[in-house]
Amino acid sequence: MVAIADSDSEEMEFSDIDEMEEAEEDSDEELQRKFERGELKPGLYREAEKVVKEHKNNVSGLKSKLEQFRLELPWIERLDFTLEAAPIAPELNAEIIEHGQTREKRMRSQNKYFTLEDDPVHNDFVREMSFYRQAQSTVLEGYKKLEELNLPTVRPSDYFAEMAKSDEHMQKVRKRLMQKQVGQQISERVKKIREIKKYGKKVQIEVEQQKHKEKREMLEKIKKFRKGKTDSIDFLEGGRSLRDGAGGNRSKKDLKKAAFKRTFKDKKYGFGGKKRNIKRNNIKDTKDERPLPNMRKPRGGKGGRGGNKKGPMGANVRGKGGKRGGTRGMVNKNKGRSRK
Amino acid sequence: MGKRKRERAEAKKAEEVNPLPPVVPPLVRDSEEPVKKKRKWTNKQRVLVFASRGMSFRNRHLMEDLRTLMPHSKSESKKENKDNLRVINEIADMKNCNKCIYFENRKKKDLYMWVANVKGGPSIKFHVLNAHTMKELKMTGNCLKASRPLLSFDTAFDSHPHWALMKELLVQTFSTPNQLPKSQPFHDHVFCFSILDNKIWFRNYEVLDTDGKLSEIGPRFVLNPIKVFDGSFGGETLWDNPQFVTPNTIRSLKKKQESFKYTDKVRQKEEFKKRKPKEPFRGDPTNDIFQTKAPEEAVNEEKQIFIRKKV
């Protein structure tokens, strides 16, 4: 290696990755093909010894190199920090825990053997949080230092200059965020409605059962009363409460009106007494001059509606369709003529 | 060497000037006296950011993102020839750059990133993994195009000499020089470098508030270090990563495993064919002799055969 020219050795250094790859491709098939071509002969070759690659770690070289190219600049030129991650803020910790819980809950329903430690998604979240915390500690420390040097820190909201991302792009980002939020809200609302429905169904069933029960009891009591086992009909008063409960209390005015109506109807149609022959004609009716309430007056015009559509024959066939229909047809004819 | 000395001298000067005492101009000034030039921009780092041919679109966006976030960067057209990397030193020299980020593309899918100090080295070769660009909509932050970033490093960077060297080189390339004419006055974003699983994870956050509220701007990527070289794009290897497996090896292993699945299936089928009997199984004919029935169950003629002896 020493004898090789300097530049060559350097070339070797950074191209040996590719050589490694090529060596791996020297498969059995390749050898067989070579053997067929006569490039290999039996007995002449033995398996090459496996070379264990030595990995370089030239510590002194690394250190001297670092010293050589390090720039001794004040901090303000570099703005670098080497810091531990900031301690977990309580809200961040809560967020991590919540994420873990929701993730576990969801995945447990699909996979019984799910564990949070092996979950790449949750690990991703935790990892990102660690990066976030590292950056956070830098910001806290860095802003302290910048303020000591009287340098501007965070960009004020009214400072306009070219940004890394265009306004158009930021609009897209905002839109996506909004969509996400709306989606979340909708899903939450749906969840709530589902819950309410579940509860409402329960209540509905209960009310129905109660109604049935009361009805049954009432019927039983009526049966007893009919058979003469009880004398009082107080239960009827009690039974009304159900209806009242459903429809609300009737006002006094309404009650009065209903009573009046009843008395009127009783007077008109009679209350009790015989029900037979009530609709039969009698002398009194025949002598009555007043027109019968439901008798229709003959209506004009309707009979001949569209009278002439089927031609004169149609009108003739109708015959009884009425005089008027005929005349209407005539009018149409006249109209036609006048147009001519 | 000369230039470096000069740079150091300038740096020292900068240190003296830097705390910036309130400048009060003298009441009377001689018109003959030449006006002293204010030299604020002392750390003149320029970074050449470019790539070889055959880059995928995502990686190209990543490169462009780096260009937008680094106002001290310069661009160059794609490099044609992949073999001779030493030419890059000359290209950088012509572009007046003393740092270089070069994206090397292999097979249109593997991306390697070289970070080099052009004069006198060192240079580091990384394998870029899991690249996400700034264009992705889940990155909600935004920052000034040319504001100077704070650089945040994991404490693990001080644990080993190779990490320390990487940190120094990353600081010099990624930090925007103070008072760079293109740069903006505010400090509204952080570059975060963390070491996890022997890889460097890069994140870029916007600072929303002085109390440390952040939101990610992007890009994000993971750098798997392969080698550290003494020179720029060449030279003696100072360190190489024992855990590094080439993406080619990973792919070929995966392919092999998949092919095993097929060959196993084929072999199993053949074996079964060999084992399968050609004739149906024939039992011992004498077995039938001892087949009996309980006399109660016997029907018709069988009744005469199966009889229970009377004791």
UniProtKB/TrEMBL annotation, chain A:
Transmembrane segments: none annotated. Residues 1-31, 270-340 are annotated as: Disordered. GO terms for biological process: ribosomal large subunit biogenesis; rRNA processing. Residues 7-29 have a biased composition (Acidic residues). GO terms for cellular component: nuclear periphery; nucleolus; preribosome, large subunit precursor. Belongs to the EBP2 family. This is Putative rRNA-processing protein EBP2. The lineage of its organism: Eukaryota, Metazoa, Ecdysozoa, Arthropoda, Crustacea.
Automatic annotation (TrEMBL), chain B:
GO terms for molecular function: rRNA binding. It comes from the Eukaryota. Residues 45-234 form the Brix domain. Residues 7-16, 266-282 have a biased composition (Basic and acidic residues). Residues 1-38, 266-294 are annotated as: Disordered. Keywords: Nucleus, Ribosome biogenesis. SUPFAM superfamilies: Class II aaRS ABD-related. GO terms for cellular component: nucleolus. It is found in: Nucleus, Nucleolus. GO terms for biological process: ribosomal large subunit assembly; rRNA processing. InterPro entries: Brix, BRX1. Required for biogenesis of the 60S ribosomal subunit. Belongs to the BRX1 family. This is Ribosome biogenesis protein BRX1 homolog. The lineage of its organism: Eukaryota, Metazoa, Ecdysozoa, Arthropoda, Crustacea. The gene is BRIX1.
